[in-house]
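Re: [ENG-882] Designed sequences occasionally contain unexpected residues at chain ends

Forwarding the minimal case from QA. Structure tokens:
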């Protein structure tokens, strides 16, 4: 609580420092017209920043203003509003992302934060849930589809590019505190302080967030029927520091994160007491933009990432391991060292080329055992990638052609091409996208199966959109995803590991309707998927051949904003998830029992008032999960983990105060 009082004192005792230099949290958001929103530059899917309608990918853009007005508590709240994104339970309290019906947790979706690759290199996972501080985020750019040609082997099914607030967004000092209370239990507390300033050619920013959340206040029942109250055994604590500076063409970014889960669920049978699980990351990203002329730029970049994911090595973990809860005590230290150089050439206003080469080394150090591959606590692999993408702006359409060649010393070579055609004609736009992607095996995949191959994905996407009026836009896209040789975790009574299975995939449709006016904003989207050639038994739902375990076929999201005054907004939101299936228990013959989970509805209301009492003091209050649904995170593969309950209704408040230099 000491941190709470410090932040509150800072907020309420500094109004005399405020100046006109304080900048809004975002220069983007619902105050813009529909035309302005349609032309916001976005670079996640291309070598050049293009508007969402011209971008050669199915993209979503979420701004700081969107996040603030929605009252979102974490990245799950944010991504739940994106078409095709759902969430599943892995093991040991860790949650992951599903994309268009496909389980993407292990190496199938790339998460970037200011250029730092957040996927850990042991299993290639990115655990989410009360992890990435939303108060630090300026925007999130998302590819709802493959990105391997641009980003490499973790971008198979999607890319989430998180961009934090920099000097130009902060322009002084900002402090935020938020608190959430569930019915009779503590829900969450978070405090963030940010500082940033531009000084001529030099700019710097520093941001720190300390938070504590409760995963759930409900009862978890494992696969064999043991239960415990999660209120006392599911704390999530996080310390997140992000900062850097830039000078002319030089940019340096630093990151430190210590994300800690308190969990008892482990893999299948729950433990008698909780064990802390840590995900630690230290990273540096240095790049330089060297303009040889107004048409040619060379961009060398160096990145270093040091991680200790899935770490549980305290006394409680050792005690659980000794009692037979194998895996409760584990610790691997990982490092990735990478360097790349890119060449960007604007031949003229109609032709752009972006090409480059990347070399990296993945290193693992097993602190509590040895790797099977070499019977040593140390392991390392080298990788070389060559990539290129060209953009041709013609009178017929914008044509994007790209490819990536990847060579890994253990599993060999992969080559993935990309072709996109986009066209905007007044109020109408059209996209035709054909891409291949790959999922590179991670250290643990290779260690359990040295013969494992990369999985390969082929995706076809078509999008059409039309601006109906000055305030309304309707967009629809169709997709077909086929994954060959998918890397799948398997578990039997005496062995577990990874192997290439036959085939899986999905196909479906996503619809987005946007209404934007001075007084009302609304985003209504619908997504629907069916399985496509799914041959992976552990993903199947018996009797429902067109579904995947854990994920609803249908999802509807509504985000609305009512602008009562220039400073006061009311922001209701709702999500509907159709029925889902998951394994929740075992029968007398120790066979897993399939359970049908009823559709659920999330309803939230958040009120924002800017400049309350004093200038630059913003206050938000709201309620999440008004319906108090019984939603649980389901394991999207049949491996013996029961569904993990989510939170009940939560009431929250947030205070944000900005001070200009």
């Amino acid at each position: 609580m000491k941190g709470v009082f410090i932040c509150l004192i800072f907020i309420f005792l500094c109004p005399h420092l405020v100046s006109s230099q304080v900048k809004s949290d975002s220069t983007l958001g619902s105050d813009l017209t529909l035309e302005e929103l349609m032309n916001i530059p976005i670079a996640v899917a291309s070598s050049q920043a293009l508007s969402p309608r011209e971008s050669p990918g199915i993209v979503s853009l979420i701004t700081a203003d969107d996040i603030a007005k929605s009252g979102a508590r974490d990245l799950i709240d944010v991504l739940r509003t994106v078409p095709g994104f759902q969430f599943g339970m892995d093991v040991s309290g860790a949650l992951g992302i599903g994309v268009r019906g496909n389980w993407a947790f292990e190496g199938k979706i790339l998460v970037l934060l200011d250029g730092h690759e957040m996927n850990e290199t042991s299993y290639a996972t990115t655990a989410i849930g009360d992890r990435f501080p939303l108060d630090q985020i300026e925007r999130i750019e998302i590819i709802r589809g493959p990105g391997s040609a641009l980003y490499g082997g973790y971008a198979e099914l999607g890319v989430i590019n998180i961009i934090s607030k920099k000097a130009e967004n902060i322009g002084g000092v900002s402090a935020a505190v938020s608190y959430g209370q569930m019915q009779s239990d503590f829900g969450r507390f978070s405090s963030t302080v940010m500082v940033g300033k531009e000084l001529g050619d030099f700019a710097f920013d520093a941001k720190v967030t300390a938070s504590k959340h409760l995963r759930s206040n409900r009862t978890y029942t494992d696969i064999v029927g043991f239960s415990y109250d999660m209120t006392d055994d599911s704390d999530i604590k996080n310390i997140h520091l992000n900062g850097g500076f830039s000078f002319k063409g030089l940019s340096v970014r630093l990151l430190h994160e210590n994300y800690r889960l308190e969990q008892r669920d482990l893999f299948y049978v729950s433990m008698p007491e909780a064990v802390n699980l840590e995900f630690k990351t230290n990273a540096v990203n240095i790049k330089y933009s060297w303009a040889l002329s107004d048409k040619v730029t060379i961009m060398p970049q160096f990145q270093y990432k040091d991680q200790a994911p899935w770490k549980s090595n305290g006394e409680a973990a050792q005690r659980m391991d000794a009692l037979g809860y194998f895996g409760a005590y584990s610790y691997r230290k990982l490092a990735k060292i990478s360097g790349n150089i890119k060449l960007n050439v604007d031949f003229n206003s109609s032709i752009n080329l972006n090409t480059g080469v990347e070399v990296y080394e993945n290193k693992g150090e097993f602190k509590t055992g040895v790797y099977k591959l070499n019977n040593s606590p140390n392991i390392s692999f080298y990788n070389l990638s060559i990539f290129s993408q060209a953009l041709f702006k013609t009178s017929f359409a914008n044509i994007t052609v790209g490819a990536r060649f990847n060579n890994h010393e253990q599993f060999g070579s992969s080559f993935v091409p990309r072709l996109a055609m986009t066209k905007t004609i007044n109020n109408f736009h059209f996209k035709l996208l054909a891409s291949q992607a790959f999922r590179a095996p991670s250290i643990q995949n290779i260690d359990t199966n040295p013969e494992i191959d990369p999985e390969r994905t082929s995706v076809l996407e078509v999008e059409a959109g039309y601006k109906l009026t000055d305030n309304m836009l309707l967009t629809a896209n169709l997709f077909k995803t086929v994954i060959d040789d998918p890397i799948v975790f398997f578990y039997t009574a005496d062995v577990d590991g990874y192997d290439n299975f036959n085939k899986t995939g999905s196909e479906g449709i996503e619809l987005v309707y946007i209404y934007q006016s001075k007084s009302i904003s609304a985003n209504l989207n619908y997504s629907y998927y069916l399985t496509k050639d799914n041959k992976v038994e552990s993903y199947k739902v018996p009797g429902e051949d067109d579904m995947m375990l854990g994920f609803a076929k249908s999802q509807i999201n509504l985000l609305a904003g009512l602008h009562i005054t220039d400073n006061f907004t009311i922001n209701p939101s709702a999500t509907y998830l159709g029925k889902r299936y998951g394994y929740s228990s075992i029968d007398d013959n120790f066979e897993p029992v399939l359970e049908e989970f009823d559709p659920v509805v999330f309803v939230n209301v958040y009120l924002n008032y800017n400049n309350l009492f004093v200038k630059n003091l913003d206050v938000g209050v709201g309620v999440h999960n008004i319906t108090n649904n019984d939603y649980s995170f389901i394991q999207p593969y049949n491996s013996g983990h029961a569904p993990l309950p989510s939170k009940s209704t939560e009431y929250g408040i947030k205070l944000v105060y900005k001070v200009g230099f």
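QA comment: On inspection the terminal residues look reasonable. The longest strand covers residues 332-348. Proposing we downgrade this to a documentation issue.
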